[in-house]
Design goal:
- By secondary structure, the chain is of the alpha/beta class.
- The chain has a single domain, classed as Rossmann fold.
- It is 39% helix and 17% strand.
- The chain contains seven helices and seven strands, in the order E-H-E-H-E-H-E-H-E-H-E-H-H-E.
- Strands 3-2-1-4-5-6-7 form a seven-stranded parallel sheet, with helices on both faces.
- Helix 3 packs parallel to helix 4 and helix 4 packs parallel to helix 5.
- The termini are far apart.
Length: 245
């Protein structure tokens, strides 16, 4: 079994790679930086995990098309990579105190281009590479704003991604395809975006390793998750539209 994971050189992506790799899955480490990607391959290989690097930058479609030329067959495509906001050198990657009125059109455009359009291109290009019962998994988030966390650009891009997930799933169903596409919400996870705050908020924030295990377990189970948005606790989100009211 072979899995391509975007953003696999760190955080949740790396944790997914480790967890799947320990189950015998061959890992394609998708990353923008070749040096970081190759270093990740060395780390995984030292743990007995079969891994290789493949350059993928969601903001550069040429890298996606070139990567597809190197891959003949895939069992799992895990779209994990994404950005929380447009990059600004004088601000944190994810400013949780940023006012909605402070978002610019460029903030929204850049985040949507990477998280939505980049993920769409990944799915479109790699769909023909999937085996008969292959799976596409999009790592996503809840879209309902709350007092603690409501990053407009990030949530908007993931809402669009969730709609795309369900649209592809409907098409798979109508075509009587055995392929699946679904989203997984790992919940609050400690990454470099939030200062690695595992255990914060009375344990609400889990470690990347915990998130990776949850995602790997869902990726490898025998259930039909096509079209579902699955929470970290296994709950299927059935009231998706209600979340926006």
């Amino acid at each position: 079994m072979k899995a391509l994971i975007t953003g696999a050189n760190k955080g949740i992506g790396l944790a997914i790679a480790k967890s799947l790799g320990k189950s015998g899955v061959k890992i394609l480490v998708g990353a923008r930086s070749e040096s970081r990607g190759q270093e990740t391959v060395k780390k995984l290989s030292s743990q007995g995990i079969a891994a290789s690097f493949i350059k993928i930058d969601l903001n550069n479609f040429d890298t996606i098309h070139n990567a597809a030329k190197e891959i003949n067959e895939l069992d799992l495509l895990i779209n994990n990579a994404g950005i929380p906001d447009s990059h600004k050198t004088d601000q944190p990657d994810l400013d949780q105190k940023k006012m909605i009125s402070d978002y610019t059109t460029d903030d929204l455009r850049e985040t949507l281009e990477v998280n939505f359009l980049g993920t769409h291109e990944m799915i479109k290009v790699f769909l023909p590479k999937l085996v008969k019962n292959g799976k596409i998994i999009n790592i996503t988030i809840p879209i309902q704003p709350n007092d603690f966390w409501h990053p407009l650009a990030y949530q908007t891009s993931k809402a669009a991604q969730n709609v795309m997930t369900m649209a592809y799933a409907l098409e798979f169903k109508n075509m009587h395809s055995e392929k699946q596409i679904f989203g997984i919400m790992p919940g609050g996870v400690a990454t470099d975006l939030n200062g690695h705050t595992a255990g914060a908020l009375d344990g609400y924030i889990k470690s990347a390793e915990e998130a990776g295990e949850i995602i790997a377990k869902l990726a490898l189970d025998t259930e039909n998750h096509n079209g579902q948005i699955v929470q970290f606790d296994g709950k299927i989100i059935t009231d998706y539209e209600a979340q926006i009211h």
